[in-house]
């Protein structure tokens, strides 16, 4: 890996981190443990409770006369969980 090469050339943790675009603690840990750092799992994207109603909401917005309470009641009647602030 490039970290070992750069360290052998005398570069500091900070310089190696900047060159590779990683955190200097990652460089330090790699050199101390002598194996590449484990990749972190990203959190899965949780679908919004509004997702099934997105098209309905957009359709209502394109109508001329609506009020937020009316829109809330329309969506709530279609079995959406949540509160008015979600709408």
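Sequence proposed for the structure above (87 residues):
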């Amino acid at each position: 890996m490039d970290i070992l090469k750069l360290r052998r050339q005398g570069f500091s943790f900070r310089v190696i981190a900047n060159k590779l675009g990683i955190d200097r603690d990652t460089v330090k840990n790699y050199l101390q443990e002598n194996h590449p750092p484990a990749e972190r799992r990203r959190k899965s994207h949780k679908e919004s409770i509004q997702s099934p109603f997105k098209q309905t909401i957009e359709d209502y917005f394109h109508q001329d006369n609506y009020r937020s309470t009316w829109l809330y009641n329309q969506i709530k009647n279609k079995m959406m969980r949540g509160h008015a602030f979600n709408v």
